[in-house]
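Hi, here's the filled form for the chain we discussed.

Project: internal
Contact: R.S.
Residues: 447
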Amino acid sequence: MSDPIEPPLTERPTKVRYGVLAFVCVLAFIVYLDRICISKAVPMIEEELGISHTNMGNVLTAFTVAYSLFEVPAGWWGDKYGSRGVMTRIVVWWSVFTALTGAAPGGAGLSYLLVVRFLFGAGEAGAFPNTATILAKWYPAERRGIAQGCFNASAQIGGAVAPLLTAYLMAFYGWRWTFVLYSVPGMIWAVVFWQWYRDDPQTHPAVNAAERQLITAGTYQSTSHEHPPIPWRAVFRNVNVWLLGGVLSCAAFNTYLYFSWYPTYLEKGRGVDSIESGKLSSLVLTGGAIGCIAGGVLIDWLIRRSGNRHASRRVLGFCAFVLAAACLVMGRTYDSPRMAALWTAASVMFSVSTLSAWWGAVSDISGRHLGALFGLMNSIGGLGAIASQQFVGRFADWMHARGHTGRAQWDPMFTVYAVVLLVAAFGWLFIDSRKSVDNDSSTAAAA
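And the returned structure, exactly as it came back:
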């Protein structure tokens, strides 16, 4: 049999990879829309169901605990069986439990919400690990930063839209039917994705030979249909796994303040009304969307300019988190809620600009086990999210019990968040993305 004929140099690559990117960006938007909409509904849910800040913190944490527990299995599931079917099941699952959030009964609302939000988190857990695998299969390494930046920006845009959109929807339909409405986009996405997407670019009917060549030149291509076992001994010995997980945990501690509690802070601490709190919360998370795009562009530029992925990520990670801490402290000094929100938006912008660098480092370290190990490091990050959701509710109740109200009750917590951002900055200085799990496992086998 003769060798296959190479495509002529004049053939232009098709653009199916951009369609893949569009799909995962829409997914990211829906993920954060469904995840963050509850933050705007917190005051209304607490009032109707008689739930304290501390117990509402437990409801919010139920999602994050499940999300952290199921990240590794859901990521491994995608590695082994393919992201197409796994992602479809994931999106259908969490969409169902988004709708069921609105069915919380009056008498046992707390117990019901704890169960439903836990199951909702279990469903969402595999979305990001499987997206990391999809992008690694469809995008060459030198073009992946911008793709990851677009994905993360879409998530932040979904988060930015959620508070304001939820405020208006609740004004017309109430909080219960709002959750039902939010379940619809995910269902539609799952059906269309299943019909169109393919796990292997080589098998997608719309991909021509030139695009296949472009993709395979810079992506990992397995020569076997068997997925190798995860070298857990090498994983747990790799200090960068723990450093990346720790940095993400600090970042998640910060961002989950805005995902879960910021609208409540604005209403209870700053005295703004429901619609205004939705607008200002959206403004803060819009800073995150800008940061994701800027961070993706910047890390690709730094890598091309320096030729050193490792050093570029360190510099970006350290500088961005230091600036994020400084902006957060500045925001606390303003009496104007809008000025405080603008500085907070700048803080979020800087902190999330590190996400593309983080994803790139995780991809380098994980090798053939990206879905599972992304899930592991994201699960470690979930510890910070859990701590943040618990901290704010308990801190607010603790301060109130000591006679503090308004800003005096809420503002001191921002000092804690600024310190955690500085810890993340210094964590980046010790990350070495050149030391992969695959290399560690090979060394261990040779020894």
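Let me know if anything looks off before we file it.
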